Amino acid sequence: MSQTVDRALSILPLLAEGPADLGQVADRLGVHKSTALRLLRTLHEHGLVYRQSDQRYRLGARLFALAQEAMENLDVREIAHPHLARLNESCGHTVHLAVYEENEVLYIDKVESRYPVRMYSRIGKPVAITVAAVAKLLLADLPEHERRAVAEKLDYPAYTARSTPDATAFLRELEQVREQGWATDLGGHEESINCVAAPIRGADGRVVAAMSVSAPNVVVTADELLTLLPLARRTADAISGEYSGRTPVKGTE
Length: 253
What we know:
- This protein is 47% helix and 18% strand.
- The strands form two sheets. It has a five-stranded antiparallel beta sheet with strand order 4-3-7-6-5, with helices on both faces. A two-stranded antiparallel ribbon has the order 1-2.
- It has two domains: 3-70, Winged helix-like DNA-binding domain superfamily/Winged helix DNA-binding domain (Arc Repressor Mutant, subunit A), CATH 1.10.10; 74-244, Beta-Lactamase (2-Layer Sandwich).
- The protein is of the alpha+beta class and 253 residues long.
- It starts with a helix and ends in a 9-residue tail after the last helix.
- Helix 1 (2-16) crosses helix 3, helix 6 (133-140) packs across helix 8 and helix 7 packs antiparallel against helix 8 (167-180).
- Pfam families: HTH_IclR (PF09339), IclR_C (PF01614).
- It comes from Streptomyces azureus.
- Residues 62-245 form the IclR-ED domain.
- InterPro entries: GAF-like_dom_sf, HTH_MetabolicPath_Reg, Tscrpt_reg_IclR_C, Tscrpt_reg_IclR_N, WH-like_DNA-bd_sf, WH_DNA-bd_sf.
């Protein structure tokens, strides 16, 4: 049975390359045409492959529907939280998780600092989109025309002397963030708060969320916080791997 399942599943990557006829499928699997036909018929019955009028087979619409449904039901917060908690245990600082939804960047998870001085951010609260490190990562991943459209609609409050002043500067910073793969907010929203952030990517490489480490100057300096960037990026990569299915969940290997 396991060999049959393995052969059937091996057909899907072949058809992902493009339509193939019965002979090509049989050759790829190293089986007789009758065996390949039996497997194809089973996959066809479940909507995973489709037989075209030219007698070639391609991936079926049901497969794409299942993939879309699976992606929609993935909870990045549930996957990310254990990683964020471990990062918090390691460094002691506030850790956030944020997503971009309906033209806002929202915090969807937070692990509090173990230090007495804490941030007033709240889960479900929009971030200061023109200065927040997580916002820069999420907007930097948008296609260029979307980035420009968003940037030109935003207001640019002067929270501090380090706040982003206008759309031109914002777009320039987003391009830099896009190239380097990480972002910072060094006193752009609050003079006394610094933040480093890293992206969480899905299977297609697009940024689906961003996580950050934040701390006040009275706890660590900006330079000291920047030394945590490699740890933050490793954490984001671990979340990305689990979210996209590139790495197994612990305990399921």
